[in-house]
Every structure is written in structure tokens, then in C-alpha cells.
Amino acid sequence: MDDRIVNEILEFRDERGWKQYHNPKDLAISLSLEVAELLENFQWSSSEEAVAKRMLSIKEELADVLIYSVLFAEAVGLDLDEIIMEKLSKNSKKYPVEKAFGKKEKYTEL
């Protein structure tokens, strides 16, 4: 993840003295709540309708999810670039292109 963005997020938090409240449990709860708010944009709508009518809210809720993800990673000492690359590597083994291309099944069903 772009260090500039991570630093902006941490600086925003630190300028307000909020780090004291950012323990892993509360950040995980906040992350879950923000994901639920993102999902709320799609309730009772098709994907197309939600995107067409609620893009501003979707954008803001996704930003909240990503910000809380950065804060959570920092709180538990994880490097986002590293864990994302590790997960992509793991997923590439579980979902090789020749088996998974164009399919939605879980790796155990391929």
C-alpha cells in the first residue's frame, strides 16, 4: 500500500489522540460495522441499481473499510503489502488459472 496514504491515515489518527482507542478488538468491530454499512447500500437493490444510485455512499463506506484495515494492520504489526502478496501467492496455488478461469466454484470444488 502506498506509504503516503498509510502515513496520512496514521497522522489523522495521531493528531486527534485516537490511538489509545485503537486496540485490535475495537478496530475489528469497527471494520465489521463499516463493511455492514457498505453492504447496506445494496440491500433491496440489484448491484447495478445500487451502484447507479448510491455511488457516493459506496465510495465513502469503502474508504472507511480501507482506513480501518490500515489501522488494524498497524495495531497488530502487519505489513499490508506483505500480507496481500502472501495471500495472492497462496490463492494462485489454490486457484490455478487452468482450473479456475471463468469459474466461481471454491477451490475444493475445482
Automatic annotation (TrEMBL):
PANTHER family for the chain: DCTP PYROPHOSPHATASE 1
> What are the protein's GO molecular function terms?
nucleoside triphosphate diphosphatase activity
Coiled-coil region(s): none
Q: Which Pfam families match?
A: MazG-like
One Gene Ontology biological process: nucleoside triphosphate catabolic process
- Report the superkingdom from the record: Bacteria
TM spans (from-to): none
| Cross-referenced CDD domains | NTP-PPase_RS21-C6_like
Please report the name of this protein according to its UniProt entry: Nucleotide pyrophosphohydrolase
InterPro entries noted in UniProt: dCTP_Pyrophosphatase (IPR052555), DCTPP (IPR025984)
